[in-house]
Design goal:
alpha+beta, 13 strands, Siderophore-interacting protein, 266 residues, FAD-bd_FR_type, SIP_fam, FNR_nucleotide-bd, globular
Length: 266
């Protein structure tokens, strides 16, 4: 399923973010997953366009089939949802197709949205929650904190911070000592760091798979990685689908894909 939306409003939030509200008739069929780290893939206009072309669906698969110079897509957290609009906060990186687009976005500009996903899922017997993130994950952390409605305490370790954006007690020590009880750790940041965090909490603290969610929100040297990934993308997509078909959740399937990519040097 895809949604073609238009920019309704743009404004800065804090020191490092641009808030873009989108909506329009194309959003009428959108149903939020409700997961607080819910993300969606955004496709941006190409050079000379104010809006990207619509996707097509062939054999049940949405995409820009056979389209040369296809629009570029990036995954972003849905910061908030209302019946008529979505809010997405863009970190100001200074470079990159998404950041540059947000810096210059105006009401009426178009985007195509595709593929909602979410990973945050503390087990029912969780005693404490630790959120670890860099700047890119702050929108998801903010939504997690806002939607948290249980007495289980949440701690935040913001590697990069924007106090004007997120006002919440933080765990600032790198030598964090886990409290008693069964914990749940959620991480968002650079992909290689996500792998390290996942391994650390499993190997050092004995966490089970359901106690750690580590999501790669971006990759260092992304263009080089994407060129190398293109050579094996079909195999990896089939591997992911086989995991899902065998009953794995999208979180577990995603972790197995990351393990397979690491095995291949990606």
């Amino acid at each position: 399923m895809t949604w073609h939306v238009s920019v309704l409003a743009v404004r800065p939030v804090g020191s490092h973010f641009i808030r873009v509200e989108v909506g329009g008739p194309g959003l009428a069929s959108f149903l939020s997953l409700g997961t607080p780290d819910e993300s969606v893939t955004l496709y941006f206009p190409r050079a000379g366009e104010s809006s990207p072309p619509l996707m097509t669906c062939i054999d049940g698969v949405w995409g820009y089939h056979g389209l040369p110079n296809a629009p570029i897509g990036r995954n972003y957290t849905i910061r908030s949802v209302s019946p008529d609009s979505l809010v997405i906060d863009f970190a100001r990186h200074g470079t990159g197709v998404a950041s540059n687009w947000a810096e210059n976005a105006s009401p009426g500009d178009g985007l195509v949205l595709w593929r909602q996903r979410g990973w945050y899922k503390p087990p029912a017997n969780t005693d404490w929650i630790l959120l670890i993130t860099d700047l890119t994950g702050l929108p998801a952390v903010a939504r997690i904190v806002e939607q948290h409605d249980s007495p289980v305490p949440i701690m935040v370790r913001a590697v990069e911070d924007d106090p004007a954006y997120l006002d919440h007690p933080r765990v600032l020590s790198d030598d964090f000592e886990p409290p008693p009880g069964r914990g749940y750790v959620w991480f968002a940041g650079e992909t290689s760091e996500a792998r390290k965090v996942r391994s650390h909490w499993r190997d050092v603290h004995g966490f089970q798979r359901d106690q750690i969610t580590a999501v790669g929100y971006w990759r260092a040297e992304a263009e080089n990685w994407e060129r190398r990934y293109a050579a094996v993308s079909t195999e990896i997509e089939r591997f992911y689908q086989a995991c899902v078909d065998n009953g794995d959740s999208i979180t577990v399937a995603g972790e197995k894909v990351e393990e397979e990519l690491a095995r291949r040097g990606l």
